[in-house]
Amino acid sequence: MPPAIELRHISKTFTERNWKTFLFRKPPSTKALDNISLTVDKGEIMGLLGPNGAGKTTLIKILATLVTPDEGSGSIAGNSLIEQTSAIRDKIGLVNTNDRTFYWRLTGRENLVFFATLYNLTGAVKKKQIEKVLELTEMQDQADLRFMSYSAGQKQRLSIARAMLSEPEILLLDEATSSLDPITTRKLLNFTKKTLARKEQKTIIWCTHNLHEADEICDRLTILHLGRILHSGSPESIKTLLNQKMRYALMVDTLHRNLEQQDDFELISKKNSSHLTCHIAILQKDIPLLLRTLSNDGVNVFECAPIDQPLETAFNELIARHSSSQRP
Amino acid sequence: MTNHLAILAKPLAFLVRDFKIAASYRLQFVMQSFGIILTTFSFFLISKMIGGQHISQLEPYGGDYFSFVLIGIALTDYLTISTNSFAAEIRSAQMVGTLESLLVTPTSIYTILLSSFLYKLLSTSLRMVFYLLLGVFVFGIEYQTGGVFTLAVTFLLTLLSFFGLGLFSAAFIIVFKQGNPISSLMAMSSGLLGGVIYPVTVLPDWLRPLSSILPITHGLEAMRQVLLNGAGLEDISRQLYILTLLSILFMGIGCGSIYYSLKIAKKEGSLLHY
Are the Cβ atoms of B20 and A110 closer than 8 angstroms? Predict the structure, then answer.
């Protein structure tokens, strides 16, 4: 099966032009994307991660055909990224944080009716589809209220409803949870993973700053920094990529020399309490061996949990390494 | 829905959108109607002031200044909305943020621009009808009503050339974001040289060639001949010929400039900037 999204050597440089640069000097330019190659399979949730200025939004805009790449080629749902932009727009849905992309004085339903027509839906099909997306996003009860009266969460849900109108094969979600409270965020994450990706088989690009949610819902992560892909793979592959020691908290009934010999060993609870808690620094791959040794020597391990967020640690380390390699 | 109706679905959606948004601002509705009455009345007073005088330049139009100027201000309204609306739609959508949501749909920029013009076209047409009815029933103007087809052809050709200028103006906004010298230039030059509130024969000889390249000059001349003198297609064939050429020229420039401005904006990544 061909990939839903395939990008080959995409580069994009933004040049700032004004009358001064036109007359007197070379315009300043920023390389937003540098030789990006990427494939995303149908039904896959691909997370785009990176600090500010990494190129995530530029990549989303290129996928949404709002920006033309300077170099490279690609295909989205089997259509050329350069030559078949209209066909691509028929197959993508874009969700972003900007609630100004709706008409505030119209109701949610009136907004959906308008955009459904622009997505070439007519008559009974249009009506049915609007009801379907309202039901999917649990917005039926608010559909006839003016958009301006919606909460941030309702606006975001309507944005998802609009993106789903044409039943697109690919959904581009740019910082989709940024204005949502934890409960609504949790609902959206579940909805995205269970309903959109697994049930409806949508291909999803999930662009975010939030490493925890990326870790939770994405099948694969692509880390961007300064316009380049630092790594693309499963969240697990990124966590183990760096092969660095991470801090773990262990709760045991007795201390063991193997624990005390670990790097950064620190006893947290007192020796005379019933359970002992200690912190150690250890490679993730060495954890099973340690637990086996402790068990063989009669030590009961009640809990073993990472203190550091593995993805966050890996992400920060990757960015730091790349930043230092870029310095002259 | 049949294919024919499906083609009209998008323009209709824009029309409904704009009507609903406009209707949500009720005071603006009332103020606009009040403005029409004030404008018409002020020109009526001017015509009363000069009414008794014989003005030779008005003779080709029946000699009555009020009926002459009413057609002028009505068509100027169309010029203003045509040259401003496309650019204003783009600018407003850039500023408000709706441009992105419009451009990610499989709807062409031409459909978006032309459809978003419909509400303004309709409301301006209602205003024009109101101007003319006010002239006829309140101020006693007598229009020739025989040449409806001729009037429609003249109007369509004039409007097409205005559209071309409007698209060119929108292309300017897509690339440069603000300014829009095209619509300002057109408004100024048409007001000064187009024969809106005085006949072009009043202009000095050296300015008349400039007047002849403006579509409003020919549109107004033809419409006045039809409405005030009962002229037919043959009588105004020269104006229709020029209007046809100007429509083709300006529409070509307008559509071409929109195409290239979008290409530039997408290349520079500035399409959604404001």
Answer: yes
